[in-house]
Amino acid sequence: MSAVNVLVVEDEDAIREMLGLVLEQANFVVRAVADAHQAQAALSESQPDLILLDWMLPGLSGVEWARRLKKDRQYGDVPIIMITARGEEEDKIKGLEVGADDYVTKPFSPRELIARIKAVLRRSNKYGKSGRIEIGGIVLDVDEHRVSISDKHVVLSPTEYRLLEFFLTHPGKVYSRSQLLDQVWGRSSFIEERTVDVHIRRLRKVLAEHNREEFIQTVRGFGYRFSEQT
After folding, report:
1. Which of 124, 144, 160 is the last residue in one of the domains?
2. Residue 84: pLDDT band by 50, 70, 90 thresholds?
3. Is the entire prediction scored with pTM above 0.70?
4. How far apart are alpha carbons 206 and 212 in whole angstroms?
5. Taking a C-beta distance cutoff of 8 angstroms, is the pair 108, 87 a contact?
6. Which among 49, 72, 127, 218 is most buried, taking Cβ atoms within 10 Å?
7. CA atoms within 13 A of residue 220's CA, in its CB half-sphere
8. Gap between the Cα atoms of 150 and 130, Å rounded
9. Element at 164 (helix H, strand E)
């Protein structure tokens, strides 16, 4: 298995050094920078497998840089874990809404951090699947990890991609939030059920740009269904 590259973006020197040490001890290849501008420069040199990004940064904030990054066709599928001192539910949801795949709240243990990183990396893998899935003009190429709708390339986050893949391979069936968490995020995930609603909303927004938002249907009192039939 090839080395996993992690880009750490943290403005506090002591925390940045600690994160680098913890990640290197876990056998990750680490590049650490102090702000979003340095991080953007690092991306242009080499694309990481995951970004560990502080919420509050000098100049361009981490949450705003994450928002821009997820809209970038070249880097939009790079997983992002936000580091935040904010514990309020609203702030956590905001981080997920801008495209972050997970978050850790300071203070956190090295063990928790590594567990979250590994969970996000597992969720972003292809799991050895191959082939092409197509429903209602939505085409998912598992081999190339690409999605297109009506022959137009669609940029999705790793979580949105996995969610769409699950829906496309299980059309017509109703799944509860807990079932979707198990199937898409994994049983060992730290994610709360409300996170499913956040990612469903983001995926619907992408599909709406191609007039396919009605494919994801809310089944009141239970969960969600993916179907061409309205």
Report:
1. 124
2. confident
3. no
4. 9
5. no
6. 49
7. 0
8. 21
9. helix 158-169
CA distance 193 to 198: 9
What is the tens place of the pLDDT at every residue in 98-110? 778 888 888 888 9
Q: In sequence order, what are the residues at sequence separation of 6 or more whose Cβ sits closer than 8 angstroms to the Cβ of residue 229?
A: 172
Please answer whether residues 223 and 179 qualify as being in contact, where contact means their C-beta atoms are separated by less than 8 angstroms: yes
Distance (Å, whole) CA 180 – CA 166:
9
CA dihedral angle for residue 88, residue 122, residue 50, residue 162, rounded to 10 degrees: -80
User: Among 39, 87, 46, 44, which Cα is nearest to 65's?
Assistant: 39
Distances (CA, A) of 170 to 148, 180, 220, 224: 18, 11, 19, 11
Give CA separation, 229 vs 1, 135, 136, in Å.
Answer: 42, 11, 10
* Domain residue limits at 40: 5-124
Q: How confident is the model at residue 125 (pLDDT cuts 50, 70, 90)?
A: low
Q: How far apart are CA 128 and CA 76, in angstroms?
A: 22
CB 200 within 8 Å of CB 224: yes
Provide the number of structural domains found in the chain.
Answer: 2
Q: Strand pairing partners for 176? A: 223
Q: Report the alpha-carbon distance of residue 7 to residue 73 in Å, rounded.
A: 18
